[in-house]
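Sequence in, structure out.
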Amino acid sequence: MIDSIFSSGFYKALPGLVVGFAVCLFAVISASLPVESSYEQYHRIMGVLSLIICIAVILFGVIAKVYGQPTSFLYNCLLSGAIGIVVTGGLFYEF
């Protein structure tokens, strides 16, 4: 049995912090860009990178569960990633 390294409060909050930072950074930078066709490319790139980070957090939680980490860490990763995908999708549609 592998010791659970993701059982403390900091590691349980880490997926939410990572996804929250990525999505907020995407929102702030997208809102500050002028509405011109030349900046649309940067908006699309940042949206895709934000979605990749959200999916990576979900996959990290699944891999951690496979290697014997607590189920609560998997739930934190799944919930953080899913919320990040929904928010990023809404922001991507809005801008």
